[in-house]
UniProtKB/TrEMBL annotation:
Protein name: Glycosyltransferase family 2 protein
A Pfam family recorded for this sequence: Glycos_transf_2
Domain Glycosyltransferase 2-like: 4-167
UniProt keyword Transferase present: yes
PANTHER family the record matches: RFBJ PROTEIN (PTHR48090:SF7), UNDECAPRENYL-PHOSPHATE 4-DEOXY-4-FORMAMIDO-L-ARABINOSE TRANSFERASE-RELATED (PTHR48090)
Organism domain of life: Bacteria
Amino acid sequence: MKISVVIPCYNEESTIRTIVDRVKNAGVSLHEVIIVNDCSADKTPEVLKEWDDDPMVKVFHHKVNQGKGAALRTGFKQVSGDIIIIQDADLEYDPKEYPLLLEPIESGDADVVFGSRFMGGRPHRVVYFWHMVGNRLLTLASNMMTNLNLTDMETCFKVFKGEILSQISIEEDRFGFEPEVTAKVSRIDCRIYEVGISYYGRTYAEGKKIGWRDGVRAIYAIVKYNIFKR
């Protein structure tokens, strides 16, 4: 199976080299790495030029900043692999765990896999209490609407078979992508699995971007895509 990794990227000049190197050395059958620069205001565009001659790495640029969901929408249009992995451009999620995420699909059990920060015994950096509470509450609200029993709906690590992702049209531009895509896969006849993953969370001083407004938008997206846009 050919694996495509999609990396939305905004102001990650200090981490993008490291994450691309880790993705390329994750020990899986990598087909392509698709990076979408969401109009970064730092030196990210200059750093991305390093892969101009790398046939495995494809870089796309937004002329205006639109958000993570919009960057993923652009990336999904370019994928040609059989399996698509979402990877953030920071270092909170480690590509070395791709084999864990891919195992349920490769064994023929799953069509979609979520990597959960809240299950299993893998390393987990201790950071913000209220972020954890918010994530759990949003996951609970999403589960009540979708009738899934996920432990971490908001996780970055999501893996899709290509034929599943091709049935989904992404509308959200920012972090509302997570509840939107969860709502939409819950209505497709597919098998969804979760696996425990590590989490190397970063602080706002280290570049974390998600805030309380994104939590409000997530609630809106949960209601919108589970009730009004079924």
